Amino acid sequence: MNTASSSAFAGGITSWLTRAEAWLDNKGRWAWITAMVLGFVFVWPVGLALLAYMIWSKRMFKRTACTARRDGHMGYRSHGTSGNTAFDAYKADMLRRLEDEQTAFEAFLQRLRDAKDKSEFDAFMDDRARAGSEARNTPPAAPVDEAPRAGNY
User: Fold this and answer.
1) For a surface tag, which of 10, 76, 79, 124 has the fewest beta carbons within 10 Å of its beta carbon?
2) Number of C-alpha atoms within 13 angstroms, CB side, residue 15?
3) Where do the segments described as Disordered lie (predicted)?
4) Whole-angstrom Cα distance, residue 113 to residue 126?
């Protein structure tokens, strides 16, 4: 009779890695960082592999449950109601007025850009017309007479 569990090796190395990953996920980001540092200290390819895995799977940059919970309690709700109808009406009116002001300001900026572009284009066309009329009004330059060469009369 064999007292060893046959399920221990049923999945092989992938089962062990899956369980280790689940355990580290349960412990949080610091467990992953600790495992990576210990991997670098004792067997550097293991630490390098853990670092690559953490970057590849985006485990280093994922929000943890603690930060999500903290942000949920301390964060402001921008789209829900506050429960105070007077404040909600004031907030809706203020947001509508701000959006109207922003739209009006963006339209003003666009008109300003258009006016600047038109003035620059008009100045360019005036310069071009002036240069063209000056070129037509000036007589062609007289050819420079060369001094007679020896043998040429």
Assistant:
1) 79
2) 6
3) 129-153
4) 20
Domain limits of the chain?
Answer: 12-64, 86-137
Sign of CA dihedral 23, 28, 33, 38: negative
Q: What angle do CA 55, 56, 60 make, to 5 degrees?
A: 30
Taking Cα atoms as reference points, which of 92, 70, 71 lies closest to residue 80? 92
Do the beta carbons of residue 36 and residue 48 sit within 8 Å?
no
51 CB burial (10 A radius; 0-12, 13-18, 19+)? middle
Residue 151 exposed, middle or buried by CB count within 10 Å (0-12, 13-18, 19+): exposed
